């Protein structure tokens, strides 16, 4: 009987807690949303499965979890805590992204910058709730709706909050089609939603090549802390646009991006163990993350309306909502929302300009925070 009792003590059943059950449910919901609802499946599926694996109970002494010395998962998580995966993901994003619409419409940079108001507004809100300055900066960056940037910054400034910050950032990225339409409907008139924009001008190959070089120089001069993310983003884009490194661009946007996305998402999910995740602090981060996303969307919309006061050729203010850097989801949401009111109003290409500007803006904001609090 003693032997049987000892065997039972080694099973997961002996160490199962209500916290484990709650987190297993959370992981199951994430997998459900990814498969059934198709909400960011490339991100939510590995995150959800990671949450499930990270919360399967086991006895003390077994090196299994991401926080256990000698665990294989700990070595995978190393790439998260040391900020290795996010720059590689930015490399792949750069190799996939076409900056033509942004180059043809430089004023869209202002819309991308305006949407970053959510970052700094939430930073102040986090300070008000009692978080210290590095923690508040890491939480605020969720407003940029950029998961890799959120993870990179929190790994540098607040690694103990990395799990809830990453889950919040990716959750709200997946919920872009749910969160943004009500805000767009509230802050725009029927007449504004019907504004049609002229097709963007054709951009030369020389412009496409010079753009990533100029952006990384300017970004580095403004915020040296942004060099890691912006530099890798623009390197990927230069590989794509140069026309002489197609194989490297394909590798960056394919195998490298996919591998890092899987490892990053899974490791983040596995880090959300009930003992470290289920607390008031995590709930506060989720609340602030939602607030920051709402502020960012509002800031982009209102600034677009403000710009129309001075523009002879009006822009559709809906594209301001795509200033958050959830590429390309927020641009797609804007496009589909506009087509609900006019099926012939195609805003996708126009919305992509502030969308990719938001990616650059959130990376620069992260660089500012690293310089101030790193």
Quick tags:
374 residues; mainly alpha; 0% strand
Descriptive report:
The chain has 374 residues and is mainly alpha-helical. It has one domain (65-373). It contains 20 helices and no strands. The chain has helices spanning 2-9, 18-35, 41-54, 72-81, 85-96, 100-104, 108-114, 117-128, 133-140, 147-157, 162-174, 176-187, 190-193, 205-222, 227-241, 246-270, 274-277, 280-308, 329-339, 348-373. The longest helix is centred in the last third of the chain and has 29 residues, at 280-308. It is globular and about 85 Å long.
What oligomeric arrangement do these chains adopt? Answer: single chain
Instruction: Quote the average pLDDT.
Output: 90
* E-strand count: 0
Spatial gap, N to C terminus? 56 Å
Q: Specify the structural class.
A: mainly alpha
User: In percent terms, what proportion of residues is strand?
Assistant: under 5%
Question: How much is the radius of gyration in Å?
Answer: 21 Å
The amount of helix comes to over 70%
Shape: globular
Order of helix and strand elements from N to C terminus:
HHHHHHHHHHHHHHHHHHHH
The tally of helices reads: 20
Ranges where pLDDT stays below 50 over 5 or more residues in a row are none
How many domain modules?
A: 1
Question: Could you describe the largest sheet, including whether it forms a barrel?
Answer: none
């Amino acid at each position: 009987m003693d032997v049987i009792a000892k065997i039972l003590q080694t099973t997961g059943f002996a160490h199962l807690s209500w916290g484990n059950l709650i987190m297993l449910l959370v992981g199951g919901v994430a997998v459900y949303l990814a498969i059934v609802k198709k909400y960011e499946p490339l991100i939510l599926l590995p995150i959800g499965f990671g949450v499930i694996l990270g919360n399967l109970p086991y006895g003390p002494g077994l090196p299994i979890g991401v926080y256990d010395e000698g665990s294989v998962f700990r070595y995978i998580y190393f790439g998260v805590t040391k900020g290795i995966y996010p720059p590689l993901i930015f490399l792949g994003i750069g190799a996939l992204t076409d900056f033509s619409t942004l180059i043809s419409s430089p004023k869209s940079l202002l819309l991308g910058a305006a949407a970053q108001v959510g970052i700094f507004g939430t930073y102040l809100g986090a300070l008000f709730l009692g978080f210290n300055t590095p923690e508040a900066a890491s939480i605020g960056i969720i407003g940029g709706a950029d998961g890799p940037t959120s993870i990179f910054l929190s790994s540098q400034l607040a690694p103990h909050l990395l799990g809830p910050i990453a889950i919040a950032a990716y959750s709200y990225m997946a919920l872009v089609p749910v969160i943004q339409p009500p805000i767009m409907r509230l802050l725009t008139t029927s007449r504004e939603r019907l504004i049609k924009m002229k097709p963007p001008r054709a951009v030369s190959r020389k412009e496409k090549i010079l753009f990533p070089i100029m952006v990384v120089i300017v970004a580095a001069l403004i915020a040296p802390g942004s060099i890691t993310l912006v530099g890798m983003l623009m390197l990927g884009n230069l590989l794509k646009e140069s026309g002489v490194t197609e194989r490297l661009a394909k590798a960056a946007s394919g195998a490298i991006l996919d591998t890092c996305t899987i490892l990053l998402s899974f490791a983040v999910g596995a880090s959300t163990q009930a003992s470290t995740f289920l607390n008031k602090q995590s709930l506060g981060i989720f609340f602030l993350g939602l607030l920051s996303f709402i502020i960012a969307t509002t800031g982009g919309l209102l600034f677009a309306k403000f710009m129309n006061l001075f523009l002879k050729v009006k822009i559709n203010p809906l594209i301001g909502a795509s200033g958050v850097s959830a590429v390309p989801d927020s641009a797609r949401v804007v496009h589909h929302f506009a087509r609900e009111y006019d099926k012939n109003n195609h805003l996708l290409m126009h919305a992509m300009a502030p969308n990719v500007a938001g990616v650059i803006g959130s990376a620069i904001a992260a660089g500012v925070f690293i310089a101030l609090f790193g």
